[in-house]
Amino acid sequence: MPTDRPQPHFVLVRPQMGENIGGAARAMWNFGLDRMRIVAPRDGWPNQKAVAMASGAGRLLDEAQLAQDLPEALADCTYVFATTARPRELTKPVFSPEGAMKKAAELLGQGEKVAVLFGPERAGLENDDIAKANAIITVPVNPEFASLNLAQCVLLTAYEWRRQEEQVPDETFEIGKSDWATGQEIEALVTHYEERLTEAGYFFPPEKAPGMKTVFRNLWSRMRLTRADVQMLHGVMRQMVRWKQHGSD
To answer: What is the dihedral of CA 80, 9, 130, 22, to 10 degrees?
Structure first.
């Protein structure tokens, strides 16, 4: 059965190729969406090519709702977005995919039922289809090549939904099995290097040494080090000192 989390219905309007329906199902499931509706598929339903292309997302096709026309598919929906790559004469709010999915999340949170329309592969949605929508989603594609594959358009919109649902941060940092180094650990590392570099005569001439040490410490502060990094850098310096002492003998 579909998941119980509120989410938009993705409505494929008169899709032409089973492979693209399967690809759309796969794209939806990549981002946790499982409410698919299919309107008047050209090659009939069910479609074995769709099943083959869906791979692990085949259950979305099993649970997909089939409609004979668009009014039937939208009968229980309270807000509808229509995806289109080119300007239309119709007067409607126009959203980016990100803005549309943010709006969808707000509406779903208020108990509304939201649908997103995706048109057939060859020419996209017709004006009569878009007239049934409350708003338009337009993807900022290359105007000289504005055609998007059905599954690509579904994937792009599904990704933006996932970002809104999960509030995915713009950047994260994987640090493996270590933890970030503390200020105390960084200070001990810097002191270790300063002492050894002083012994090696690096901070010369003496009157410039304080300024050089400030620049040196500033270098360390610009690097985010893990505890593993700190241990490795201590080891590097110890080995260099051993090598130098051994070479002197």
So the answer is: 170
Could you give the angle at the alpha carbon of 75 between the alpha carbons of 24 and 101, nearest 5°? Answer: 45
- 176 burial via Cβ count (<10 Å: 0-12, 13-18, 19+): exposed
Task: Report the phi/psi class of residue 44: left, alpha or beta, with left for phi > 0 and alpha for psi in -120 to 50.
Answer: left
Domain 9-165, CATH among 3.90.226.10, 3.40.1280.10, 3.40.50.720, 2.60.34.30: 3.40.1280.10
Give the pLDDT of residue 249.
53
pLDDT of residue 38: 95
pLDDT of residue 248: 57
Show me where the domains of the chain are located.
9-165, 183-247
Q: Per-block average pLDDT, block size 10, for the chain (249 residues)?
A: 84 93 94 94 88 86 93 93 79 92 92 93 86 89 77 94 74 73 89 92 91 88 86 93 74
Q: State the alpha helices, DSSP H only, in 31-96.
A: 48-54, 58-63, 70-73
Question: Which residues in 43-73 are b (16+ Cβ under 10 Å) and which e?
Answer: eeeebeebbebbeebbebbeebeebeebeeb
Q: Please give the model's pTM, rounded to 2 decimal places.
A: 0.71
Q: How far apart are CA 242 and CA 245, in angstroms?
A: 5
